[in-house]
Amino acid sequence: MDREFFGRHRARFLDALAAEESAALVFAARPRIRNHDAEHRYRQDSDFWYLTGLGEPHAALLLLPASDDEPAEAHVFLRDRDPDEELWTGRRIGVDAAPEVLGVDAAHPIEALPDLLGELLVGTTRLMVDLGRDERRDRQVLDLVRSLDGRARSGRSVPRELLDPAPVLHELRLFKDEGELERMRRAAAITAEAHAAVLAAARPGAHEYELDALLEYTFRRRGGSGAAYTPIVAGGANACVLHYVENDDVLRDGD
């Protein structure tokens, strides 16, 4: 993990937060159940990944911009190490190692988020947080903001305004440094190689799913994490379906 790479992203966002006089709370993506006790392959939230490089679920990042009295701070909340659970679901960074590995100022157990958030947000009046995608998480954030009213009445500033971070954060993500451009060039080269392999393999009698599998195989074989979206592999009339993803038909001569 290149902690400096993600640290630069946080620094840029913290500068933008200072200009907006706002703190920011960014959550990791939740795991998605595929069926019964099997989950879809985990894919981290793009904003959270951009700011942390942490590929684990059940995590959050709190960014507090610099003020006249205090320096900027980055707090990560994540699951602690648990050998029994890690045997089933994979290794974790853990709270103790997170500051060094991720390059953040402090790390806390994710279970402590509600209590510590109330303490850390005292003194701020605005909070950027992405709402509307997870009802349970939205309720947790809104309940927290309401619970801070008592502190506001005692004369201490607390968040009174919730803002969407996307306009600020996504504008920052538009501008790539050389390291990001190199990653994009590599992804494009892998993509081109995969499409060339599909062109060479396409023939009457083959199935769309064979070409779909060849795409995925090439992406993964060359070091990519997989497709950026579900591939559309369509022969004949299937190609007229804008979001065709069944990819299970036969390729017919002349199509």
Q: Would you give an account of this structure?
A:
This protein is an alpha/beta fold. It has ten helices and eight strands. The chain has helices spanning 3-20, 46-52, 83-89, 98-102, 113-120, 135-147, 149-153, 166-174, 178-201, 208-221, and strands at 23-27, 33-35, 38-39, 60-64, 73-78, 106-109, 126-129, 161-163. Strands 6-5-4-1-7-8 form a six-stranded mixed beta sheet, with helices on both faces. Strand 4 (60-64) and strand 5 (73-78) form a beta hairpin. The longest helix has 24 residues, at 178-201. 25% of the residues are buried.
- Note the run of SSEs as H and E: HEEEHEEHHEHEHHEHHH
Strand content: 5-15%
Trace the largest sheet across and list its strands.
6-5-4-1-7-8
Q: What is the CA–CA distance across the termini?
A: 46 Å
Rg, Cα atoms, Å: 22 Å
How confident is the prediction overall: mean pLDDT? 93
Q: Residue share in helices? A: 40-55%
Shape summary: elongated
Q: Biggest β-sheet, characterized?
A: 6 strands, mixed
Question: What characteristics describe this protein?
Answer:
43% helix; 8 strands; elongated; two-stranded antiparallel ribbon; alpha/beta; 255 residues
Topology summary:
Elements: H1 3-20, E1 23-27, E2 33-35, E3 38-39, H2 46-52, E4 60-64, E5 73-78, H3 83-89, H4 98-102, E6 106-109, H5 113-120, E7 126-129, H6 135-147, H7 149-153, E8 161-163, H8 166-174, H9 178-201, H10 208-221
Parallel strand pairs: 1-7, 5-6, 7-8
Antiparallel strand pairs: 1-4, 2-3, 4-5
Helix pairs in contact: 1-2, 1-8, 9-10
Summarize the structure.
This protein is of the alpha/beta class.
